[in-house]
C-alpha cells in the first residue's frame, strides 16, 4: 500500500488560495455591528402573527436552526410575527419580547428557551421538548439532557458540507464522531456508527429493507430537502429493529414564513483539471406557502454528476454495487399541512427520489499488492445501470393538548428498489442458461413497507415528578431480491411483520437528578414460501427449501440518569438495548444443503446488542464540551466478512466494542467559532466460537480513530468562511494484508452575500492529498476494490431567496 503523500505544488496552491481568501475578507470594510451569533448571517424574514409556539417553530424553520421547547408552557401567548432582516438571536429576542423568556444556544447548536426571571418551578430552568415534527427521541427529550449521546446537525452545518460534497456518507463522517469514512460509492455497506450498523430514517420512517439490507439506506433523499439530521449514538430501540449502532434520522424541511416564499440554487462541481467529463451540475428549487390554516411545501432537486478523479488526475474506478460518480438523480418532495386549531395539525408528505448511473465507464483492474489503484476508462459495461429508487408517503396527526397529553400519529408507505451493476459471479452461473463463467447478471432488491406509529406523552405527573411516554408501532415489509437479466428469484418473496409496544419514563427525583427507564416489547414474524435456490449456490442446480413462519419475541430495556452537578457540569450514563434482524436475504439465498426448513434456521435468530455509556457535559459561557465512553456487546452478533467469491458473509458470533468520543465548541467571539472532536474505537469478535473474543474487527465493521477540527468565521455581514480538517489515524489488523496507512484531508469554503442572493466557493481536499480510501485499505482484499479517494474538487454555488 502506498503511503499518502502531499505534493509540493498542492501545498503552494493551498497557500495561495488561503492568502487570496484572507485578502478578500480583509479588504471588505468592517461591519458596523457584529452578528449576534457566531455561525449565522442576517436573513430576511416574513413570519405572520399567531400563537407564540407556532410562530417560534416557523421562525426556527426559516432560520435553519433546531429549536427545542415545551409548547404547553407558551399556551395562551401570541406573537405579532417578524418582518425584516435579523440575525438568529436578534430574531428570537424580538419574537420573545414581553414573554419573560430568552433563546439560549445549547450543546450541539440546538436552541432552547430560558426564563429571564426565576418564575418557574425548581428543576425547569429551560423550556424543552415538543417540536412541530416528530423527534427521533420518542419522549422528545432535549439535546444535552439525555442519558446517552445525541447529536443534531442543523441546516447551516448541512449547507457548509454541501458546499464541499453532496455525498451523505462524507457529511456524516465529517460531523459525527465514530462514523466511518465515506466509501464515496452508492453503497454504504461498511459505513458504521460505533462499530455497528446504524438505522437510517427519513422523518422517522425506516429506510432499510427488513428482508435484504443492501447497504444503500443513506441514499433515499437529497440532503437539499433536509432541515436537520438527528443522531442517537449507540444501540437503541426507539424506532424498532436495526439500530444496533445508533440512529440517523433525516428530518425533512417544513413550510416556512407566511405568504409565499421561494428558493432557487445552482452549483457547479469540478476536479482541478476542469475536464469536461468531470463536471457536475445541480439545481434545486423550493416553494413554501402559508395562508390561514393551510401550509404547503414543494421542493425539487436535479443533479448530474461527472466522473471522479484522484490526486494524480486519474479516473477513480467503478464498482458493481453502484456509483455516485457518472450518475444523475432527482428528488421531488411535496407537503400539505392544515391547522385544525392552535394545537392540532394534519400533514401529508410525499417524497420521490431516484439516483441512476449513466453506464459510461468500465473498471480497469488494479493491483493491491503493488499499490496500483483500480481506475476506469470509457466503455460500455455489461447489463443495465445501477440505481436507487425510493417512494415515501406519510400522513401525520399531532395534538399538543389531548386532555393534557401530547399525541402523535404517523402512517407511512415506502416503496424501495435498489439495483446493483452487472457482475460475472459464480453465484449467478447456471449452465442451463449460459456456459459457466460467461453469464453476466445483476440483482435488484425490492421492498414495500406499510406502517404506523402512535406516541402519547404526558409531562408533569405527580406535581412535576414524572414524565411518561408510551406508544405502539406496526409494520409490514414485503420484499424479495431478483436477478434482473434472467428473471430468477435470488431471495424468495418474504413478508416480515413487526408489532411493538413501549413505555418510557423520566423521574425527576430532585432539581438536579433525573432517572430514565423504559421497556419495549418486540414481536416479529417472518413468512417465507417454499423456494429453490439458484444453481450457483451448490453448483448442482440449487436446493429446495421448505418455507414456513418464524416468530421472534424480545423484550428490550433501557435505563439511565442525568445529573446536573453544577450550572456548567452535567453527568450522564445509561444502559440500552438494540434489536436487529440478520440479513435475511443473505441467509436464504446462501442455503446449499437439501432438506432444510426455514423454521429450523438458527441463522435467522435476531441480534440483540447491549450498550453501556457514561458521559460528561461541560457548558461554559462560550465553550461547551462532551466526553463519552461506551461499551457494546452482542452474544450472537453479526460480523461482516468477504468470501473468496467477493460476496459479503454475515458471521454470527460474539462481538465486543469499546470506545470514547470527545467533542467541543468554542465561540471565540461574536464572529469566530471553533469545533473539534476526537473519536477512538476498538473491537473484537469470537471467531473460534469458544465464548471469548479473539480477533480484531476490520475496517468492514469499525472506523479508524479520527481527529476533526472546524473553524467558522463571519468576517462581516457579507463575507464568511469555513475551514475543516479531518485526520484519520493509521491502524493495524490481525490480517497483515489489511493495513490502514491513515490520511488527512483539509477543506475550505468562502461565501459572499450579494445584493441578490449569495455566492459560495468550496474546495474539498484542498491539499490534493493522494490516498486510498479507508474501505479499500482495511475492509477488503481485492484488486477490483482498490480505490483511491477523490482529489482536489471545486464547488461553485449560487442561492437566492425571493
UniProtKB/TrEMBL annotation:
SMART domains per the record?
A: STN (SM00965)
Q: Where is the signal peptide?
A: 1-33
PROSITE patterns per the UniProt record, alphabetical: TONB_DEPENDENT_REC_2, TONB_DEPENDENT_REC_3
- Keywords tagged on the record: Cell outer membrane, Ion transport, Iron, Iron transport, Membrane, Receptor, Signal, TonB box, Transmembrane, Transmembrane beta strand, Transport
Where it mainly occurs, coarsely classed, is: membrane
User: Which ranges belong to the motif TonB C-terminal box?
Assistant: 785-802
The record's Pfam families line, in alphabetical order, gives: Plug, STN, TonB_dep_Rec_b-barrel
Q: How does it sit in the membrane?
A: Multi-pass membrane protein
Entry protein name: TonB-dependent receptor
- Origin species, per record, is Ectopseudomonas composti
Amino acid at each position: 500500500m502506498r503511503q499518502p503523500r502531499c505534493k509540493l505544488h498542492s501545498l503552494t496552491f493551498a497557500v495561495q488560495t488561503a492568502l487570496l481568501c484572507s485578502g478578500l475578507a480583509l479588504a471588505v470594510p468592517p461591519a458596523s455591528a457584529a452578528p449576534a451569533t457566531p455561525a449565522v448571517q442576517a436573513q430576511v424574514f416574513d413570519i405572520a402573527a399567531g400563537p407564540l409556539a407556532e410562530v417560534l417553530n416557523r421562525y426556527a424553520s426559516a432560520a435553519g436552526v433546531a429549536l427545542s421547547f415545551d409548547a404547553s408552557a407558551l399556551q395562551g401567548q401570541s406573537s405579532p410575527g417578524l418582518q425584516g432582516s435579523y440575525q438568529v438571536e436578534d430574531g428570537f429576542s424580538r419574537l420573545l419580547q414581553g414573554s419573560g423568556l430568552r433563546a439560549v444556544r445549547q450543546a450541539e447548536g440546538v436552541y432552547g428557551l430560558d426564563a429571564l426571571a426565576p418564575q418557574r418551578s425548581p428543576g425547569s430552568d429551560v423550556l424543552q421538548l415538543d417540536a412541530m415534527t416528530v423527534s427521533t427521541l420518542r419522549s422528545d427529550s432535549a439535546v444535552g439532557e439525555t442519558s446517552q449521546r445525541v447529536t443534531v446537525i442543523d441546516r447551516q452545518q448541512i449547507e457548509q458540507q454541501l458546499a464541499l460534497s453532496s455525498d451523505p456518507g462524507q457529511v456524516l463522517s465529517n460531523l459525527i464522531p465514530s462514523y466511518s469514512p465515506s466509501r464515496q460509492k452508492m453503497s454504504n455497506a461498511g459505513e458504521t456508527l460505533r462499530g455497528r450498523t446504524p438505522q437510517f430514517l427519513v422523518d422517522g420512517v425506516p429506510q432499510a429493507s427488513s428482508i435484504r439490507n443492501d447497504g444503500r439506506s443513506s441514499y433515499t433523499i437529497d440532503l437539499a430537502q433536509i432541515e436537520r439530521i438527528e443522531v442517537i449514538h449507540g444501540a437503541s430501540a426507539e424506532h424498532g429493529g436495526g439500530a444496533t449502532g445508533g440512529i440517523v434520522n433525516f428530518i425533512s424541511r417544513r413550510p416556512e414564513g407566511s405568504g409565499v416564499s421561494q428558493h432557487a440554487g445552482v452549483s457547479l462541481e469540478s476536479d482541478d483539471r476542469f475536464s469536461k467529463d468531470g463536471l457536475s451540475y445541480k439545481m434545486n428549487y423550493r416553494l413554501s406557502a402559508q395562508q390561514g390554516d393551510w401550509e404547503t411545501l414543494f421542493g425539487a432537486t436535479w443533479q448530474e454528476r461527472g466522473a471522479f478523479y484522484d490526486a494524480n488526475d486519474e479516473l477513480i474506478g467503478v464498482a458493481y454495487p453502484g456509483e455516485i460518480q457518472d450518475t444523475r438523480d432527482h428528488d421531488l418532495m411535496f407537503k400539505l399541512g392544515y391547522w385544525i386549531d392552535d394545537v392540532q395539525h394534519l400533514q401529508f408528505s410525499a417524497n420521490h427520489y431516484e439516483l441512476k448511473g449513466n453506464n459510461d465507464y468500465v473498471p480497469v483492474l488494479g493491483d493491491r499488492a503493488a499499490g496500483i489503484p483500480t481506475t476506469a476508462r470509457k466503455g460500455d459495461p455489461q447489463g443495465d445501470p445501477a440505481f436507487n429508487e425510493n417512494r415515501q408517503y406519510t400522513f401525520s396527526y399531532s395534538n399538543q393538548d389531548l386532555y393534557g397529553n401530547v399525541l402523535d400519529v404517523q402512517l407511512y408507505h415506502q416503496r424501495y428498489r435498489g439495483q446493483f451493476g452487472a457482475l460475472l459471479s459464480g453465484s449467478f452461473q447456471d449452465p442451463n442458461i449460459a456456459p459457466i463463467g460467461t453469464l453476466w447478471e445483476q440483482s435488484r432488491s425490492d421492498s414495500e413497507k406499510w406502517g404506523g406509529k402512535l406516541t402519547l406523552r404526558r409531562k408533569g405527573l405527580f406535581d412535576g415528578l414524572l414524565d411518561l411516554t408510551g406508544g405502539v408501532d406496526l409494520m409490514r415489509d414485503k420484499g424479495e431480491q431478483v436477478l434482473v437479466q434472467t428473471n430468477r428469484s435470488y431471495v424468495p418473496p418474504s413478508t416480515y411483520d413487526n408489532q411493538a409496544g413501549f413505555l418510557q419514563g423520566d423521574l425527576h427525583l430532585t432539581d438536579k437528578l433525573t432517572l430514565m427507564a423504559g421497556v419495549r416489547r418486540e414481536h416479529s414474524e417472518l413468512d417465507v414460501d417454499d423456494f429453490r435456490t439458484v444453481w450457483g449456490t451448490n453448483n448442482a442446480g440449487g436446493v429446495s427449501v421448505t418455507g414456513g413462519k418464524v416468530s421472534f419475541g424480545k423484550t428490550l430495556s433501557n435505563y439511565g440518569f442525568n445529573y446536573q452537578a453544577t450550572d456548567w457540569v452535567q453527568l450522564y450514563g445509561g444502559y440500552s438495548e438494540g434489536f436487529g434482524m440478520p440479513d435475511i436475504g443473505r441467509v436464504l439465498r446462501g442455503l446449499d444443503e437439501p432438506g432444510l426448513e426455514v423454521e429450523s434456521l438458527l441463522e435467522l435468530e435476531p441480534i440483540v446488542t447491549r450498550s453501556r455509556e457514561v458521559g460528561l457535559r461541560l457548558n461554559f459561557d462560550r465553550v461547551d464540551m462532551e466526553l463519552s465512553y461506551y461499551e457494546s456487546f452482542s452474544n450472537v452478533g453479526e460480523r461482516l466478512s468477504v468470501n473468496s467469491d467477493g460476496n459479503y458473509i454475515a458471521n454470527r458470533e460474539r462481538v465486543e466494542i469499546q470506545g470514547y468520543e470527545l467533542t467541543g465548541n468554542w465561540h471565540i467571539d461574536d464572529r469566530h467559532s471553533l469545533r473539534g472532536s476526537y473519536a477512538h474505537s476498538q473491537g473484537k469478535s469470537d471467531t473460534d466460537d469458544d465464548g471469548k473474543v479473539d480477533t480484531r474487527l476490520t475496517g468492514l465493521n469499525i472506523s479508524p480513530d479520527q481527529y476533526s477540527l472546524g473553524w467558522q468565521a463571519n468576517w462581516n455581514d457579507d463575507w464568511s468562511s469555513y475551514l475543516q480538517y479531518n485526520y484519520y489515524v493509521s491502524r493495524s489488523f490481525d490480517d497483515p494484508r489489511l493495513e490502514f496507512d491513515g490520511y488527512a484531508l483539509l477543506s475550505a469554503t468562502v461565501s459572499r452575500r450579494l445584493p441578490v442572493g449569495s455566492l459560495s466557493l468550496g474546495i474539498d481536499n484542498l491539499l490534493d492529498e493522494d490516498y486510498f480510501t479507508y474501505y479499500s485499505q482495511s475492509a477488503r482484499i481485492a484488486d477490483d476494490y482498490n480505490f483511491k479517494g477523490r482529489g482536489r474538487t471545486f464547488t461553485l454555488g449560487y442561492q437566492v431567496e425571493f
